[in-house]
Structure formats: C-alpha cells, structure tokens
Amino acid sequence: MHEGYSKVFVALDGTDQQDFVLARAIKVAANNGASLIIGHVIDSTALESAGSYPADLVQACRTLSPTPSSPRSRRPRRTRISPPSRL
After folding, report:
1. 70 in helix, strand or coil?
2. Contact at 8 Å (CB) between 39 and 11?
3. Higher pLDDT, residue 58 or 34
4. CA–CA–CA angle 61, 63, 68 (5° rounding)
5. How far separated are the first and last CA of the chain, in Å rounded?
6. If you placed Cys at 25, which of 2, 10, 41, 45 could pair as Cys (CB 3.0 to 4.6 Å)?
7. Can you list the alpha helix ranges (DSSP code H) found in 33-79?
8. Average of pLDDT values for 55-67?
9. DSSP-derived secondary structure letter, 77
10. Is residue 24 classed as helix, strand or coil in its secondary structure?
C-alpha cells in the first residue's frame, strides 16, 4: 500500500482502540517510508464543565508551552520507519 505519504500523524487518547490505531499508523508509515508523528489527546470536557483546571495541569502546560519571547527548547523526535523486510 504505497499512497505517497511523507508524514503520518496519529493521535492517541487512551481508549481501547488506540492500540489498533497506532499499529495501523505504523504500518502506513512503514509502507510509505514516512515519518510517524505521535500526539496525545486529552478530553477536556470534564474539566471545562467543572469550571476550572487542576493547578498541576495548568503549571505543566505553562512549562511545556513556548512563550512568544522564548523558543521552544524541546523539539519533537522524528524517526523514519523502515518497511518490514520480506521473508
């Protein structure tokens, strides 16, 4: 399955389906010699309905988010995935 992708992004959310989704993304990236970018998604609707966010979560977001005056120090790690070898 060569579809011409150079980058594949997969969002993982902690559900039961994420293992299948990740395996599929790995296969698509490998078959296309593409970079695989993995993101983690958090459902914030429960936090939004409570009216406030936990202080530790807010602090973690501030620590990881770049500010306009400072460049982001952590860059995402990119790894090229090779297609599986045929036996």
Report:
1. strand
2. yes
3. 34
4. 95
5. 18
6. 10
7. 45-50, 55-64
8. 71
9. P
10. helix
- Any residues with CB less than 8 A from the CB of 76 and at least 6 apart, and which? 37
How far is it, in rounded angstroms, from Cα 68 to Cα 66? 7
- Reply yes or no on whether the pLDDT at 38 is more than 80: yes
Q: Classify each residue of 24-35 as buried b or exposed e, where b means 16 or more C-beta atoms within 10 Å of its C-beta.
A: ebbebbbbbebb
Q: Which two tokens stand for residue 11?
A: 């969002």
The half-sphere exposure of 56 on its side-chain side, counting CA atoms within 13 A, is: 0
- On whether the pTM is more than 0.70, the answer is no
pLDDT of residue 30: 93
Query: How confident is the model over 16-39, as a mean pLDDT?
Result: 93
